[in-house]
Write a sequence for this structure.
């Protein structure tokens, strides 16, 4: 695919600031200060040597940064353009639909590698079967980076709520529909699958985006 075409797909389908920088800058964009703060929070938290699958990894910006921390990284995305871009960076990325994580043989193989960590960065809201992935994951931790339902503007002004949170259905492990209207409810949703959670973003009420880590086992440190 022509790089200009990839860039178009990239901007249409991926659209995060870091990916835009990655696609347009000739500088080394993978040093930390060029990554947006959520990526930095995740990078700082993950120890070297972990195996990681980035779900809906986009153009692979986060994976590439993690690979420089000597982590074993792999990912997948629905968008062929994003996959091509990730692969052009030498990343182990395949095309796949997260909602078919347990039926598409390529994704089944990816999860059968038993990653320590899976990441949902700016994608949880698109995925109909996110609960099933939470339920079936056997590794240590899940990182969720997304719009912060507890952001002060969202809390104060009902008309400034994030439409994605209003429309997306989150079901608990008991199939109860959970309304994600603050950070606590997002954490309770993940915890219903047997995880503990912690917020990695400092002063989360002031931040539009937030990183939450869900841990499978409270006694096993990352
Ligand atoms: C906002 S982008 C985030 C990309 C990247 N994770 C990041 O943080 O920069 C959302 C990504 O989700 C992907 N996506 C949406 N639905 C998907 C699905 N069902 N399975 C896999 N990827 C999906 C899109 O192709 C897009 O790359």
């Amino acid at each position: 695919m022509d790089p200009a075409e990839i860039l178009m797909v990239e901007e249409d389908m991926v659209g995060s600031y870091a990916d835009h920088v990655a696609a347009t800058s000739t500088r080394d964009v993978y040093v930390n200060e060029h990554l947006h703060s959520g990526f930095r929070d995740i990078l700082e938290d993950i120890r070297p040597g972990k195996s990681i699958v980035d779900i809906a990894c986009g153009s692979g910006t986060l994976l590439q940064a993690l690979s420089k921390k000597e982590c074993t990284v792999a990912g997948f995305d629905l968008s062929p353009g994003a996959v091509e871009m990730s692969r052009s960076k030498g990343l182990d990325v395949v095309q796949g639909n997260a909602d078919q994580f347990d039926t598409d043989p390529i994704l089944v193989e990816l999860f059968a590698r038993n990653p320590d960590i899976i990441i949902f960065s700016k994608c949880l809201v698109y995925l109909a079967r996110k609960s099933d992935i939470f339920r079936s994951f056997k590794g240590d931790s899940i990182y969720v980076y997304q719009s912060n339902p507890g952001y002060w503007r969202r809390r104060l002004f009902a008309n400034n709520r994030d439409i994605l949170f209003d429309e997306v259905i989150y079901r608990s492990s008991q199939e109860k529909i959970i309304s994600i209207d603050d950070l606590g409810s997002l954490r309770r949703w993940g915890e219903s699958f047997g995880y503990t959670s912690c917020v990695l973003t400092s002063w989360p009420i002031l931040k539009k985006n937030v990183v939450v880590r869900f841990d499978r086992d409270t006694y096993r440190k990352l």
Notes: The radius of gyration is 17 Å.
